[in-house]
């Protein structure tokens, strides 16, 4: 049985509230879980101590039992100092899409054409 430490959503529409739970990975997101390990309220300020609460000892126990934290929970554990920080790299995130690249190429071509047109009369005047 593969275990996950993940978020289970609660709260009403547009008012999210999450429980940090240890659950079987085959169970649905908001479905059956084995143990509640803490809470996460994204509506509170980032510096608020009430935003993320978790039982660190139980989290460490479940990690010792082989439970894998999800990406978001892993970031919370890194902030709490339970888990070592991992290096993240997404080199494609900053690159523009196809249409944006086409617009940049068009703009560069127009600028080059305008520069050539402006340079041509200056050369003609210099030859005379």
Automatic annotation (TrEMBL):
<dbReference type="GO" id="GO:0015935">
    <property type="term" value="C:small ribosomal subunit"/>
</dbReference>
<dbReference type="GO" id="GO:0005737">
    <property type="term" value="C:cytoplasm"/>
</dbReference>
<dbReference type="GO" id="GO:0006412">
    <property type="term" value="P:translation"/>
</dbReference>
<keyword id="KW-0689">Ribosomal protein</keyword>
<feature type="compositionally biased region" description="Basic and acidic residues">
    <location>
        <begin position="99"/>
        <end position="109"/>
    </location>
</feature>
<feature type="region of interest" description="Disordered">
    <location>
        <begin position="80"/>
        <end position="128"/>
    </location>
</feature>
<protein>
    <recommendedName>
        <fullName>Small ribosomal subunit protein bS16</fullName>
    </recommendedName>
</protein>
<dbReference type="Pfam" id="PF00886">
    <property type="entry name" value="Ribosomal_S16"/>
</dbReference>
<feature type="compositionally biased region" description="Basic and acidic residues">
    <location>
        <begin position="81"/>
        <end position="90"/>
    </location>
</feature>
<comment type="similarity">
    <text>Belongs to the bacterial ribosomal protein bS16 family.</text>
</comment>
<dbReference type="GO" id="GO:0003735">
    <property type="term" value="F:structural constituent of ribosome"/>
</dbReference>
<dbReference type="InterPro" id="IPR000307">
    <property type="entry name" value="Ribosomal_bS16"/>
</dbReference>
<keyword id="KW-0687">Ribonucleoprotein</keyword>
<dbReference type="InterPro" id="IPR023803">
    <property type="entry name" value="Ribosomal_bS16_dom_sf"/>
</dbReference>
<feature type="compositionally biased region" description="Low complexity">
    <location>
        <begin position="110"/>
        <end position="128"/>
    </location>
</feature>
């Amino acid at each position: 049985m593969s275990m996950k430490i993940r978020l289970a959503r609660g709260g009403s529409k547009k008012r999210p509230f999450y429980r940090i739970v240890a659950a079987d990975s085959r169970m649905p997101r908001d479905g059956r879980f084995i143990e509640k390990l803490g809470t996460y309220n994204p509506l509170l300020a980032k510096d608020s101590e009430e935003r993320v609460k978790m039982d660190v000892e139980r989290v460490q126990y479940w990690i010792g039992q082989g439970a894998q934290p999800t990406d978001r929970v892993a970031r919370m554990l890194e902030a709490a100092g339970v888990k070592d920080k991992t290096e993240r790299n997404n080199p494609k995130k900053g690159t523009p899409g196809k249409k944006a690249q086409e617009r940049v190429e068009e703009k560069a071509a127009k600028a080059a054409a305008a520069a050539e047109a402006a340079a041509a009369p200056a050369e003609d005047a210099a030859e005379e």
